[in-house]
Amino acid sequence: MLDYSRLIIDPIDFYKLADTLPSEDQALLAELREYLQAEVTPVISDYWNRAAFPHDLLPGLAKLRIMGVNYKGYGFRERTNLLNGFIALELARVDPSMAIFAGVQGGLSAGSIYVCGSEEQKQRWLPGMAALEKIGSFCLTEPEVGSGAAGGLLTTCRREGDEWVLNGAKRWIGNGTWADLHVVWARDEDDNQVKGFVVEKGKPGFSATKIEDKMALRVVQNADIVLKDVRVPHENKLEHANSFADTAKVLMMTRAHVAWLATGCGLGAYEHALAYAKKREQFGRPIGGFQLVQDLLFRMVSGVTSSMTLCHRLSQLQDEGIMTDSQASLAKAHTTVSARVTVGYARELLGGNGIVLSEQVGRFVADAEAIYSYEGTREMNSLIVGKALTGQSAFV
């Protein structure tokens, strides 16, 4: 017999993609959504306005155990990349900065240790990171080196006995002002290869300064970092981080997370626009009943749904172990472009109220601009896809 309850349209998950998750994963998402709506949504605009991070919310997130759910062992949940993607979506639909915090903590930083660390290093650091007892950062981008990190990293390292000496500068480092563990990538003066290190908080010569006056992702505490003769014990060099190819393994693993994050940004703006269309009245009735408003809502939900579907399949490929770099790049580029368009439609629907912080949409509009360039620009990702299509590299 037909189950008519399943015919009800969910305006947020239009194609019921979350229904493909096991029931225990759906229950975790519901618990996370309830926590975010109750604890984060009411206060996050104030934090965004003050460019402050909600440290007081971390104990609640820690109880949910949502960091690195796709990893095995070390206190992680040992679930799927697909669940990890939906978690990023849920965080970003409330505030993209919260999803970026999770992406740095459970993805880039913990992921570097998970992929490149020795067993001893994993046992030493990952349980605390999974429990949010130790906060991590990922130090790759530099003031003069962004997309060219593969061939032009300027931060250097050299070995002196049982220590490594690091010198250089990093920029746009999420969690950089308050992290306990900094994963720093530097070029070895001896063999010119990129190596990875865990620099623990309080090391002499290490300084982090908050980047002020950002117009986007204001909750993320990005830092300018300077390393001046920072001495790191050899035991803190990630054992399997010996070339940029190892760095690239981490970046590829986390690129799907960024695609989910961008989709969540668009979803958050659309969700607030939809609620506004139902409550805002003009000419004696809600504006949601007008044709041009419904057309905007159609454009938004179609953009969000297409991006969500793309991310869903990408995470399935990742879980099957057959996701390629070009597939991840296609999703990252597509979803960030789509998010930019979607948040614009949401702002348009709200008219002048779209730039008022109390109506929420404005911060998604601003955040989408940063996510568009975050962790791989559209142009760089398009060339990765182009190489896969043609067999010819257009990189210079």
TrEMBL record:
Chain ranges of the Acyl-CoA dehydrogenase/oxidase N-terminal domain: 24-132
Keywords on record: FAD, Flavoprotein, Oxidoreductase
Domain of life: Bacteria
SUPFAM superfamilies per record: Acyl-CoA dehydrogenase C-terminal domain-like (SSF47203), Acyl-CoA dehydrogenase NM domain-like (SSF56645)
Domain Acyl-CoA oxidase/dehydrogenase middle: 137-230
Domain Acyl-CoA dehydrogenase/oxidase C-terminal: 248-389
GO biological process assignments: fatty acid beta-oxidation
GO molecular function, one term: acyl-CoA dehydrogenase activity
Cofactor: FAD
Pfam families in UniProt: Acyl-CoA_dh_1, Acyl-CoA_dh_M, Acyl-CoA_dh_N
Assigned protein family: Belongs to the acyl-CoA dehydrogenase family.
Protein name: Acyl-CoA dehydrogenase
Organism per entry: Palleronia caenipelagi
Biological classification of the source: Bacteria, Pseudomonadati, Pseudomonadota, Alphaproteobacteria, Rhodobacterales
